[in-house]
Amino acid sequence: MKYEKVNEKLRIFSCSISDLTSEQAAHFLQLWEDGATLGMLSLFYDLEEDALVLNRDNKEYPKYLEMAEFVLSADDKTLESFEKSLPESTRETFYVIDNFKRQRKARQEVRIIEHQQPIYRYSPEGDVLRELCCIRNDWLLLSLVYNYGFIQGKRVERRRKNQKGGAKA
């Protein structure tokens, strides 16, 4: 499906109800209570397009666009207090946007991990993973998990160094 770009950097797009496929429309209606209409749709996450798609026919479209741009740009601490201030009627929309943000970040991490070399099976780390593999029998998955842990450790170390360097300045 072709969506209209609203904010390419944040992967926000829009469409009207008439642009939805019959499968999408049926899917949304199945999720909702009896009597719900597609006009109630505020936004949704399109996994195939990796896009947050807003219903531009919704009367609250400007409000939801503003919320999406804010949530996708804000840090976790800011979002925590923002969530508490939301009326109950908009929390579900907030959760969809926040979930999109978290899934997108996780996919970016996976793309980084996939570019790492698998752990050599006959190294000290490989010996431990090989033993775990006997239990789980999924070498590649264990190798990716190890690489992710290694990357996270490097990030913590860099943050620590940057904090120490910043404190001296």
Summarize this entry quickly.
This protein has helices spanning 22-31, 61-73, 76-85, 88-114, 124-136, 139-168, and strands spanning 4-7, 12-15, 43-46, 51-55.
Structural notes for this entry:
- The longest helix has 30 residues, at 139-168.
- This protein is extended.
- The chain is α+β, with helices and mostly antiparallel strands.
- The model has no long low-confidence stretch (mean pLDDT 85).
- It has a 4-stranded mixed sheet, with helices on one face.
- It has helices at residues 22-31, 61-73, 76-85, 88-114, 124-136, 139-168, and strands at 4-7, 12-15, 43-46, 51-55.
- The chain is 61% helix and 10% strand.
List the helices and strands and how they pair.
Elements: E1 4-7, E2 12-15, H1 22-31, E3 43-46, E4 51-55, H2 61-73, H3 76-85, H4 88-114, H5 124-136, H6 139-168
Parallel strand pairs: 2-4
Antiparallel strand pairs: 1-2, 3-4
Helix pairs in contact: 2-4, 4-6, 5-6
Structural class by helix and strand composition: alpha+beta
**Could you tell me the strand content as a percent range?**
5-15%
**Unreliable segments of 5+ consecutive residues:** none
What share of residues is helical?
A: 55-70%
User: Largest beta sheet: what is the strand line-up?
Assistant: 1-2-4-3
Radius of gyration: 21 Å
Overall outline = extended
- Termini separation comes to 52 Å
Total number of strands: 4
Order of helices and strands: EEHEEHHHHH
What is the makeup of the main sheet?
A: 4 strands, mixed
How many DSSP H or I helices? 6
Q: What's the average pLDDT? A: 85
Structurally, how many domains make up the residues? 2
